[in-house]
Amino acid sequence: MPKRKNTFSSWRQRLAQRAVHAGWAWVRRTGSVTAEHPGRFRFGAIGEHTRLAFPLGTVFGEPWIRLGSYCIIGEQVTLTAGLMPDLDLGPDPILRIGDGVVLGRGSHVIADTTVTIGSDCYFGPYVYVTSTNHSYDDPHQPIGKQWPRMEPVEIGPGCWVGTGAVILPGARIGRNVVVAAGAVVRGTVPDHAVVAGAPAKVVRRWTPDTGWQPPLRTPAPVPIPDDLTPGQLRALADLDEEAVSRLAALDPDG
User: Which parts of 41-187 are beta strand (E)?
Assistant: First the structure.
């Protein structure tokens, strides 16, 4: 026989679940870091409307970290300046992040020497950027005990870096570059390029003379006009639904 449902217990469980969700939402709002509410962090600069989501990843060396305005730093993002906490790194910033940058959940930016991320860059989740790499020159010493190599990293403005990409020391990425998911980037990448693979190679590039080569396979999306009102957008959505319904009626197998 089916078990009798305990209505009172189910009601209590739903109430407890709502309380937990509401409490966690409050914790996330309260724990996020902004210029107005920096908590224990003392960044070299943090611009207006920039927010670091809670829970944060590892953050240290923040006096040498400068964050621009209108940045979104996702949950569990690691931002570090220097090899370890509590070092004096001198008068100049080590990690510079421009305005309007989005760092996806779980990403890491490790700046043991200078790392610069230009404005309006968007990172997917779990991107790894580092200015330091292990060295293995001495075959008789464990690699982890050998002094690492450090080279500055620069990512130009307007780039899109896909999920799980790795940006290695010495990388110089131009403006408006697409880094494919899972790519491993080292060396110099020109402006307006698409790179993919490990190690990453240029697979498409735009120039004023030739446009995109190889040509794009799909047409560019049409942006929403600036003067379109919310009411007009809703009306367009209703028209789309009506058109889909009519097509389904004409072709029931489609």
Answer: 45-46, 51-52, 59-60, 65-67, 72-73, 78-81, 95-97, 102-103, 108-111, 115-117, 122-123, 128-130, 132-133, 149-150, 153-155, 160-161, 166-167, 172-173, 178-179, 184-185
